[in-house]
Amino acid sequence: MTTKHPQQFIESFSYDVRLAPYDIQGSIAHAEMLGKTKILPKNSVAKIIKGLNAILKDLNKGKQIPSDEDIHFAIERELMRRIGPVGGALHTGRSRNDQVITDLHLYLKDHVLMILGELRR
Question: How far apart are CA 90 and CA 87, in angstroms?
Fold first, then answer.
């Protein structure tokens, strides 16, 4: 019998990596809200959005980000690696559950539209 490491029971990265573009889309909207409400300064928001767009661009080119417990932590860690500690401010006023629901909503909305298109075809 093989013993599983506890991390293997909570790891979802291999499944939710397909949510990356939607997580970035939601994160950009969240960063914009943090700027509009003056929770974060405009320069921090601009830096966060630029970093998120760069990650998305790399993902669209087929580049991968290092895996983590889930896609949300992976993107957050990659953002902080690229832009420094200001990347951690993106989590301000946001729960992980909110993030998961938003990602799933955007993913399902996108895929339902693709399915409807196929049905019409």
Answer: 6
Mean pLDDT of the chain: 90
User: Does residue 26 contact residue 76 with C-beta atoms inside 8 Å?
Assistant: no
Given this model, what pLDDT does residue 16 score?
Answer: 83
Q: How many residues does the chain have?
A: 121
Over residues 86-98, the pLDDT tens digits come to 999 999 999 989 9
Closest C-alpha to 43, from 73, 78, 83:
83
What is the rounded CA–CA span in Å between residue 76 and residue 106? 19
Match 């993106």 to its residue by tokens. 90
For residue 67, give the DSSP letter.
P
